[in-house]
Amino acid sequence: MKIAIIQFPGSNCEQESSQAIKMAGMEPVEFMWNHDPNSLSEFDGYFIVGGFSYEDRSRAGIIAAMDPLMPYIAAEALKGKPVLGICNGAQILVETGLVPGLRGNAVGMAIATNKRVKHSTVLGTGFYNAWVNIAVSCDPHSSAFTRHMRHGTPIRVPVAHAEGRFIIADELVTQMKRYNQLTFRYTDQNGKWAIEFPDNPNGSTQGIAAVSNPAGNVMAMMPHPERTDVGQPIFTSMRDFIADERRIQIRTLDYRVPKVAVQKYEPSGTGIVTELIITDNEAVTVEQTLRAKKIDVSVSRYSHWAATGENISAETLSKTGELFNSNKERVVDNLPAEKNTLYLMVRDKEDFVGQSKKQTLKTRFSMSGLRDLLYSRVWKISAQSGNLHEAIEAIMETNILFNPHAQDCYMFAPTAASPAKPQPMQQEKQQNMPSYVNTITEQRNNCLTRTDAPLGTRLEGKVRDRYVQDDKIILITTDRQSAFDRVLASIPFKGQVLNLTSAWWFEKTKHIIPNHVIEIPDPNVTVGKKVDVFPVEFVVRGYITGTTDTSAWVNYNKGVRDFCGNQLPEGLKKNQKFDFPIITPTTKADEHDRLISPKDIIDEGLMTQQEWDFCSRKALELFSFGQAIARERGLILVDTKYEMGRDKDGNIILVDEIHTPDSSRYWIAASYEGRMANGKEPENIDKEFLRLWFKDNCDPYNDKELPPAPPELVAELSRRYIMLYEMITGETFVFPEDGLRVEDRLTENLATYVIENKTHDTDTKTHIVAGEVELSREMKVVLVLGSEKDADFAKRITELLAQDGIAFDQHVASAHKEAAKGLDLIERYKDKRVIYVTIAGRSNALSGFMAGNSDKPVIACPPFTDKMDMLVNIHSTLQMPSKVPVMTILEPGNVVLAIKRIMSLISS
Fold first, then answer.
1. Residue from 13, 87, 138, 615 carrying the catalytic annotation
2. Which end of the chain is less enclosed by CB atoms within 10 A, N or C?
3. Domains, the chain
4. What mean pLDDT, rounded, does the chain reach?
């Protein structure tokens, strides 16, 4: 009988292992990891030896488990041949999934750091070398290695390991007992099963010292029976098992391994990060192994300590010399946030290293104020080529950084500050929430629907009115509630909620990225820096959900798996959480939002690679921070969008809004798991019920007139917006003073921003109102843009208009998506002396729409980027039906000259 003595780099027990095999009457043959694996079929059995001379798991067990040799051994085990792994050999069998024997050899358990605990006191962790008692704890005839031994009779053998603690879930232990898989357990000298140290030397689950697969021919064992004569029955049993040539019964356990969940690390207390100043052989080995697996990354490793308590400082902790060896390690002040780099923090579920050090600091160093001390490893993963997230997914499949049965993994943001302390809504506030409905109902007519003021060039969005000045932009958030590409209703205080919620988040996230906010002069107003905004929205998704054409779930349900450059796995369910948040950017093509991949963003020149890398990283950091705060408030931040741009100094900053109920989706955290388990949609706080009412009572896409929204639904939606504001910020919503109209408050608060110029009649008192501004009978130019993308082109016209003192307004109204808004503009200006200038490209329906539905002159000035683009735009602009007069002028200067001549004719 030939037994292969399997050796991987670093093993040092081959001599005593070979001797034990020889004493049992078998022939040991040394078999190195780099020998031809095809020759393994010539052997009758296999002995994976232990005693690796360095760190057990990642440099020994898991690296060897990934070796090409192991699938061959697994195939021979299926034939019924015995496989024995001792110490680090046991680690290899666990990490390959040969034990405990789940379907597909899934990794179902772990071997973790020793814990030496007695009477709830941690006596020590790490390496331990001693003699212990073990005994067979299964039916001796069920295993290839116990048939010469008696159940419960102890034998004394040595142990020598740093990671020898079997961790097995209780449910799996129950299944394993059914098939006699708990082969050996630690005992005291009388044969009583041992739970505590020193009889149980490592804190192993239920005192387990060895486990087998269901067939009994593969065993992973931590003690070293090969080092003593009393261990020989294990090897003679192996010999007789081979001699019997009995066919084994192949079984697989039906235990389901929980999916790995990478959490967001929530920093707290005092943190210390250290790194080796000598070569980190473990990181080097991990990196080399990953590259051999075609995962092109570089790897670094750090140690992380987090202490909480009173009078605890990093300096005090460092001076003890307990947390790191200053001869080999140094403290790192800041981990850099680098391109294509991600940090993963790994911490033992039972952090006995941290607990042990905490005891030492409290007793030996009198740190009575120390409440907790946590130890973790931080792995820095940098993609050298390819997609970082694809590389991370591939790494996670290897388990090389951590075993999820023994350890937790966190996304570690190196630049993130500690999150704000929880500020949940007070119970009395929750109880008083229903009374808000009365106030809302009383002020249902105190809404800000639209503005028109001398504050600069006006741009009207779905919810916000923007006024552009030389160096700043004034954003007035109205109470308009839009859906179906039109305004459905005015919701009292919605604008105040959105603006103040965004202002709160801007303040909380400025440590991650600076933002455009200059001041908040009014609850509905943000004055921000004028910014060159990137033509890309950074949509970040933590869950797969949604109902629109650009949503993750709708596309996934259609079979899309490459979603904006993200490779989505099979088998996802609606509303399921992604393993990692993903970015699914959108941009505007003509007048329609479209999904786009990062590669296409770069290829189309919308952003540079450097700009994309920076903005996408900041988007993920913002989202992680937002999710952490939301979780503290009992909410789930499901998905959101961010906009960024460059200020006049070239700095990339955050603009527009952040984490508002309009830009983000929130679910109620407490009910999420239960509703998912029951196949129900998550509980949310949004406007869907109002949308559904309009769908049930009219055709909101096609009806020219919509029925008024029921007052009770308007009040309820307002209440929900206010409730979400209070849940997120922890602050009490402040209603306007009794009798004070929102527009009157705005007029007073924005007085310093009024611009006195010829765009408004200075002889007429101008008032910001929720309606029209009374102006003189002066002729005005009205610019109508197909999308906000056209604003830069429009600026070339408005600057010339301003130089000549010609009054103008500017609006955005897509003929394709916002026809109702275009009709509203035509109605608004029907009794005024105006000239329309339309700016829309490609499928230019806007010019004909304005000319065909009004009696005003229309000048079309289509934008274009090159000659080919110009030909397409001119063609669509020139092709007008009869009785639809549109003048097409390509040069902005000529547009203004034509306007002046028209005005001259009319005035004469």
1. 87
2. C
3. 2-244 (3.40.50.880), 263-411 (no CATH), 434-531+691-755 (3.30.200.20), 534-646 (3.30.470.20), 780-905 (3.40.50.1970)
4. 86
